[in-house]
Amino acid sequence: MKENDKRQPFTLKRNWPALIGIAAIPIILITLFAWSSGWINMGRITSKQIYDDFNNTISPFPSGYRRAHGKGICFTGVFRSNPEAAQLSKARVFTQKDIPVIGRFSVGAGNPHVADGTARVTSMAVLIKTDDGQEWRSAMNSVPYFHVATAEGFYAGLQANHPDPKTGKPDPKKLDEFHSKYPESVKFEKWAATAPWPDSYSGASFNSVNSFRFISESGKETYVRWVMRPRSPMHEMTEKQRKEAKSLFKFYSITFL
Ligand code: HEM
Question: InterPro entries, from UniProt (predicted)?
Fold first, then answer.
């Protein structure tokens, strides 16, 4: 130490608060990582619990497939906004001409080999990249709303739908308990009981789950959900047609204009 250096020599007695502060940083970071990975559970539903339950009827799960929406087909296309959207938002996606899009249609089931005539939910995912570096990603389902509002509700729904080993069907008592705890699921099931089953991805509509906050040039805010509507007419399938349809029937007639 130089003669005019005013710093005090390091001693444990004097510097213990600083040492505790330094040790606290990695401890806090490790705890946060452990919490977000589900190692510290505290009764939270983890993504692993959901994944394991999701595919509990397929064992071992085939490698190389997504745990949901495993069956799908990719596409490329062009996004063209109309001038009305540009009045709601100053985002480049609504002013740039002809933006390249990549996307994927999929069957919203856990089993990647499911017959698509048996899955209520089909999906469309899109990635739109504008020339100013913005990325718009949207995952949309062919249903107007999701059947539950929270991850806990989703997990409870999976559990309630486990087939009873005696009957091979979900236990009606457990289903009733689930419906009374998550009443939004009743609304979904009412919709699902009567809504038509489109015979192709090209006749279906797809809805995003999240809303986006659009901000116009003048600062006005509008909340908007992405909805993809087909130009081709929607052809409804009967239950008989669905049962008899080949596994990949929805993939045969994708003709977006
Ligand atoms: C708790 C609720 C949900 C769970 C647990 C869940 C789970 C998953 C999983 C595991 C994947 C596969 C991801 C991968 O391996 O790449 C996936 C994909 C997907 N999800 Fe969800 N999801 C949920 C809600 C939703 C909702 C509300 C929507 C849309 C409204 C949605 C639309 C999609 C789409 C379109 C894909 C396929 C993406 C692609 O083709 O690249 N999901 N989901």
Answer: Catalase (IPR018028), Catalase_core (IPR011614), Catalase_sf (IPR020835)
Per-position DSSP letters for 153-201, written without gaps between them: HHHHHHHHTSBPTTTSSB-HHHHHHHHHH-THHHHHHHHHHHS--BSSG
Measure 108 CA to ligand 1 centroid, in angstroms. 8
Q: Which of 51, 53, 69 to mutate to test the pocket of ligand 1 (most atoms within 8 A of CB)?
A: 69
Write the secondary structure of 195-226 as one string of H (helix), E (strand) and C (coil). Answer: CCCECCHHHCCEEECCCEEEECCCCCEEEECC
**Ligand 1 atom 12: the closest Cα is on which residue?**
68
3-class DSSP state of 246: coil
State the chain's mean pLDDT as an integer.
Answer: 88
Residues in the chain predicted with pLDDT less than 50, given as ranges, are: 255-257
Question: Which residue's CA is the closest to the ligand 1 atom numbered 32?
Answer: 139
User: pLDDT, tens digit, for every residue of 125-142?
Assistant: 999 999 999 999 999 999
Residues 6+ apart with CB under 8 A from 102: 74, 75, 76, 77, 126, 127
Contact 106, 121 (CB under 8 A): no
Q: Quick one: fold of 55-143+195-251?
A: Catalase HpII,  Chain A, domain 1 (2.40.180)
Distance CA 68, CA 118 (A): 15
Cβ contact 139:208 at 8 Å: yes
How far is ligand 1, taken at its centre, from the CA of residue 119, in Å?
A: 14
Scored b (16 or more CB within 10 A) or e, 194-228 reads eeebbbbbbbbbbbbeeeeebeeeeeeeeeeebeb
